[in-house]
Amino acid sequence: MIRLNIIKKPLFTLLSSTLLLSSSALMAEDKVLAVVNGANITTSQLEIAATQSKTTLETLSDPQKKLLTEALINRQLVLDEAIKAKYDQDPSMVAQMKALSDSYLAASYLAIIAEKMKSSEQDMKAYYDKNVLANAATEYKARHILVKTEAEAKTIITEIDGGADFSTIAKEKSIDTGSGVNGGDLGWFTKQDMVASFSQAVANMKKGELNQTPIKSQFGWHVIILDDERTLTPPEYNAVKEEIDKLLIKEKLNKYLEDLNKNAKIELK
């Protein structure tokens, strides 16, 4: 599996697709679909409801639009009752409504900012060259024998150097029973797939080499032989272009938020 070298930074969680509206919802003709106790149910409300349901008005069938309209009518009826009961004036509800309003406003504005941060072809290609092409992962194919003590591992290395069969010893003595039954074969893996000490040792070995010093990990002591290695073919630029664009936008948004924090007067209490 190809992995992009992604720069991990915190994301602004308010940027949620369930809160954002398409521009068509704001620009479309606001046709009245129903009137409930004097309150209008309109096409823009229907499109907003569709967006919050992670779909679009255009993709809904007429029966689905009818169901959604009925849901909006019911919502309006319950809203009327809530207002009659002065529930909208309850301090807790006032605080929750303000929080939702603030979150929606901030997320919508951040979406506008993000739209202006679309990456240029040149920037995306530069990122691809630096982080994808230049960091093509290496896969290794190795076998190992896992034992409990360093002394036992050293004895096994001496035996193999003396002509003993690696696979046979792995089947007989490895406490990693998963690979042991296969002669210690671990298959193909990248450095990220294994614990650090094991990965580092393999990366420093040559093809066909048996490590002469046992490698310690939290699992025990490893005797390793590197059978093969290969460089993974990076994905084509066009295959990861959209993902790169999103990564670059996230980086710009984080920088935007960092600057806002830097220039603001913030007092934590």
Description:
- With 269 residues, this protein is of the alpha+beta class.
- The chain folds into three domains: 93 residues, no CATH class; 41 residues, no CATH class; 95 residues, Chitinase A, domain 3.
- 50% of the residues lie in helices and 14% in strands.
- A hairpin with a 2-residue loop joins β1 and β2.
- α2 crosses α3.
- The longest helix has 27 residues.
- The N terminus is likely disordered.
Kindly summarize this structure in a few lines.
Helices cover 50% and strands 14% of the residues. By secondary structure, the chain is α+β, with helices and mostly antiparallel strands.
Task: Set out the fold topology.
Layout: H1 23-27, E1 32-36, E2 39-42, H2 43-52, H3 62-84, H4 91-115, H5 121-133, E3 138-147, H6 150-161, H7 166-173, H8 177-180, E4 185-189, H9 196-203, E5 215-217, E6 220-231, H10 237-263
Antiparallel strand pairs: 1-2, 3-4, 3-6, 5-6
